[in-house]
Amino acid sequence: MENQLSLFYGLSFLTAAVAFAFAVYLYLWVKKQRMENEKIKEVSALIKEGANTFMRREYTVLAKFALIAAVVIFTLLPSPVWQGDVLKNISMAIAYLIGTVLSAIAGKIGILVATLSNGRAAEGAQKGIKPAFLIGFRGGAVMGLLVVGCSLLGVAAVLMITGDSSILLGFSFGASSLALFAKAGGGIFTKTADVSADLTGKVELGIAEDDPRNPAVIADNVGDNVGDVAGMGADLFDSNVAAMASALVIAQSLSGGTFANTSMVFCYAILGLLASVIGIATARIGKKGNPTRALNSSTYVTTAVFLALTAIATAIFEGFSWRIWGASATGLLVGVIIGITTDYFTDDSKPIVRKVAKASASGPAFTVLSGVAYGFISALPAMVGIAVSALVAYTLCDPMGEGYAIFGISMAAVGMLSIVGMIISNDAYGPIVDNARGLAEMGGLGEDTIRTADELDSAGNTVKAVTKGFSIGAAGLTVISLLGAFMSEVNTALAAAGKELITGFDIMSPTVFFGVLVGAAVPAVFSAMLILGVDKNAQRMVAEIHRQFSTIKGLREGDPNAKPEYSKCIDIATSGALRELIPAGLMSILATVVVGFIGGPLAIGGFLLGNIVTGLLLALFMSNSGGLWDNGKKYVEAGNEGGKGSEAHKAAVIGDTVGDPFKDTAGPSINTQITVVSLVSSLLSSVFVAFSIFG
Amino acid sequence: MENQLSLFYGLSFLTAAVAFAFAVYLYLWVKKQRMENEKIKEVSALIKEGANTFMRREYTVLAKFALIAAVVIFTLLPSPVWQGDVLKNISMAIAYLIGTVLSAIAGKIGILVATLSNGRAAEGAQKGIKPAFLIGFRGGAVMGLLVVGCSLLGVAAVLMITGDSSILLGFSFGASSLALFAKAGGGIFTKTADVSADLTGKVELGIAEDDPRNPAVIADNVGDNVGDVAGMGADLFDSNVAAMASALVIAQSLSGGTFANTSMVFCYAILGLLASVIGIATARIGKKGNPTRALNSSTYVTTAVFLALTAIATAIFEGFSWRIWGASATGLLVGVIIGITTDYFTDDSKPIVRKVAKASASGPAFTVLSGVAYGFISALPAMVGIAVSALVAYTLCDPMGEGYAIFGISMAAVGMLSIVGMIISNDAYGPIVDNARGLAEMGGLGEDTIRTADELDSAGNTVKAVTKGFSIGAAGLTVISLLGAFMSEVNTALAAAGKELITGFDIMSPTVFFGVLVGAAVPAVFSAMLILGVDKNAQRMVAEIHRQFSTIKGLREGDPNAKPEYSKCIDIATSGALRELIPAGLMSILATVVVGFIGGPLAIGGFLLGNIVTGLLLALFMSNSGGLWDNGKKYVEAGNEGGKGSEAHKAAVIGDTVGDPFKDTAGPSINTQITVVSLVSSLLSSVFVAFSIFG
Q1: Which of A11, B149, B397, B664 is 20 to 30 A from A29, comparing alpha carbons?
Q2: Residues A472-488: what's their mean pLDDT?
Q3: Among candidates A21, A189, A170, A1, which has minimal Cα distance to A89?
Q4: Which residue in the set A372, A387, A511 is minimally distant from B391, CB to CB?
Q5: DSSP state of A506
Q6: Residue A313 — very low, low, confident or very high, per pLDDT cuts 50/70/90?
Q7: Other residues' Cβ atoms within 10 Å of the Cβ of residue B205
Q8: Number of cross-chain residue pairs from A and B with Cβ atoms under 8 Å apart
Q9: Residues B229-259, buried b or exposed e (16+ Cβ, 10 A)?
Q10: Mean pLDDT throughout A262-277?
Q11: What is the spatial distance between Cα A197 and Cα A604, in angstroms, rounded to a whole number?
């Protein structure tokens, strides 16, 4: 069986190499595409420069944070350095740093490809929907393949070298902590620019979304890249690593079949990556094809290929269990179902978006109220889906022996995330074509091209909802398995301290209950801090835009010699985002530490539960209501309920502005926050066992 | 010791009688006050008639519901009628019906006094702040005294006659189920009218809030009565009964000291009522006094008197424990602290409201976003407070023996609600003076009087936030103790069925976890249904108002011969509210039943936890952000950030409209929803033990 595991280590490296090679091929293909329009070249270069400046400044701040964290980790983890094995502490700190570096690379490469693809996709749109779609999609796929390749490579290498799955938690924490700040920082940047550009441009002046007169327009396009591409890449890298790490920690704690179970985790990850490669390679669109359908059908192809390949592997390999396969399959199918129901709430061809658009005719308060209400309702199917998949996975795997039930849940998360390569490709496609639309307008490519780009952009919005369902659902399942990982870490520490082991977290215990209530408040406060960050930052940027319009002569009137100072806006978004991103992330980590020191491991168990419960609810609510408002506005702009310029349109724009930080700043940061908090808890379990007031 | 209990039964009846006598005295005092203005008499009669019509129609619907529920209860509870003791089933059904009837009476009397006081308070305001304050406050106090007297009387009578505390759960369920529908129905009514009146009057026509030309103005004043008076009375009656019932169920299950503990619950309830009587009797305000300070100082007097009296009782009576006293005192103090922090977030002399007002200058999206963000943050101190009080109560009482820890938590809830008589008085004061303000305007009593009435009204808004903190906090603690009551009921049923007892609800169990996630989604869906109810209903009413303005000649211009058809608006609010109130309440009850049949008692334990956690979060968020927006608007109207008519004002009005159903429909209904779900679970525990799929 140990040979089997070696085989899978080898296959993991090989598959990662295949993914990298395919990514390079797609990168070269995109690069070969034509980009000749001078204006587009110029603006594209500005976007690239702005994004790179932000990333450089962000990573400078985060590098300091990571180094401090690495020192703390070296000193304390897995056990205080003066008590334990120094080599282990060094490994943990190095694994942590590798996690942060790989996460940073994922973001950086995403930016590189996205800023390469956007201008080319804009020019592609001149020739029709097919070439533009392929450029956007393949640009996104480069990022998808690299992220998943990196996570597979990193996890396999760390485990093979150290042989100790708890070091994986350090690696995963590196990925998550960076993702938390990258997502928050990028989210604040992008929405600061978006909200300010919309308010000053669309609402006050009545000019088009990407009008080059608007000083915030480049910052807005930069934001798409640093928020939706880099942030999202770091986020899904983190989710994928966390799901694999928690499955591997549990697999190694299982009595009997350790190697087979560990192999199985790698096997599923490998097959998921291969399925994504196949899905990406087969993505096709007709000349007049529907881009939403093209994206969705690639997702379904990937899903089917993954299910078939894993079934074959389960039949072939010794020690692979059909029950575990069932758990993974359930996770993946529930992910698809969550995606479909999310789509129901956010797609403008479905009734909900139309109802909200209709409510807008009665004024903005009704837009907001109905969006909030449907956002609340939209959380129900996803939460029931996650609950059911956990229940099914548990029930399927429980008969296999002690610990297998939780392993089943962790494999449901691995299953849900198996097609993450495909998901990232779809997700990164969105901001690329969104940028392409802006470039088409700024480059003056004409109405037809803009319309084609609009169609591509709208598909990006819809598909985003589906992929968000996956990442939130997977975070839910991952955290349940991390709760299992946390309990096993705590019991190891308790056994070492000669104390009584814990058997679970009973909600009738006031310590657990204390943790639950505090944990439940954290995602709300975290979201609030991010929203307020956008709020404050956008007020600063709006003031700057007003200043430019009033002091730069001819700018408002469209004099071609009047140049807006784009870089000032980029600078405000950057420094504001950097100022606001640390407090929210730090607050969640500190809250975990404080609860742990007050209530010990039992309180932390409750804390994680409370955190995940309201975290899921708020993440689903905010992502979906935000998507709903965005598409509601698009629906009105398409000429419904009075169309552009009507009262309904004004109300819909307000709804969209409220939704912006919901769906692109707070909502998608919450799942990273949940993961970080879980990992901090697991890593500090021995500390909490040793020092706590009530624990 | 049995003699001691008999003593407290006797004292309970005596105290209730004292409270009733004092209420009658205050009622006669209010009635004696002058009401001579013809216009005020006329409008006051219209309000009274509208409120009574709504109540009659609402109670007709609810009577049918209650009768059906009574038949179901008779058939199934406490055990199926064909298996158990028929007499017990009859007692349970009768106790249920008494609970509903007392709840209905509480609402009805509240309306009676409120509609008696409003016109008198308006005329009192002509003479100054002092007489108007006393009329409003004493009118509210009549309701406060009657509600608390009824709950003490009802609980004591049911327990004394049946001697079976589980019958109390039936009584409590009667109170809660009616409160759920009354709160939801009244909440939908009041906000339908308020939102429609504001949108058509303030926003579209730019006329004052209570301008008699507006066809919705009477409906708006009726709404204050049926939502804030009748609904709130039913709500706090329910909370108070539930807290006492759960404490008594646990007291009776304790080994040793049963009588002393039961006596203690009654003793504390009696002393709380006496403390409220003293607080009400000593309420004073100077000629130029500050009404907010007067209301708050009566609350503090009541708190101090309660703590002193219970300390004396604990010293005197045999078997009374200082640990339990400590738990109650902690509950009460935490309630006060929650109130103070809530005040910090919603009072316009504090920074938060001013920040939101400032954000409004950048547009309505910023009003909404900053209000949502601060609303999220405001939940933190209250949730931590509830968590800490549960932890302290548990830790204090745990050494007393098995079961005492949970008893301590239930006594913390009883402590928090001990001053409920005072709280209701303060709460009912609000809508009375709100109505008085409207009547002063419609009766043409002049600017000075309106300004006096405005000052009284603003105090009502601030104090409301404090009292809401109490009721939400108490619901939190009550539900923890109901969870304890549920577990003891389940174990009784399991023992009877010869099955293994449960020792707790471990969140690592997937059945518990399943319940947690589904339970967590329920308050969100419940809130959404209520908000959508207001939304739909208000759209209908706005259409009707537009119709009246366009078809009734001279109405818009203020021709004194043009009479708006007030009754049409009242009718729309009524029938809409009745249509929307049943589904939301029924959904929460059905969700409980479905989860119970799927996952059995373990899933229900999780369900209750999930329900309470997100229920608390959403209730605090919605109540506080709603209060924040309301006072933000008032702050702008007072001349800040550009004052009335400015862009900031328009944005603030939109924020207030969003906040209306948050703070007066969904937010305050959630704690009733939590209580109902807990009681349904406890009552059906034997059914879930007998029939469930995974349980």
Answers
A1: A11
A2: 83
A3: A170
A4: A511
A5: B
A6: very high
A7: 15
A8: 243
A9: bbbbbbbbbbbbbbbbbbbbbbbbbbeebbb
A10: 94
A11: 42
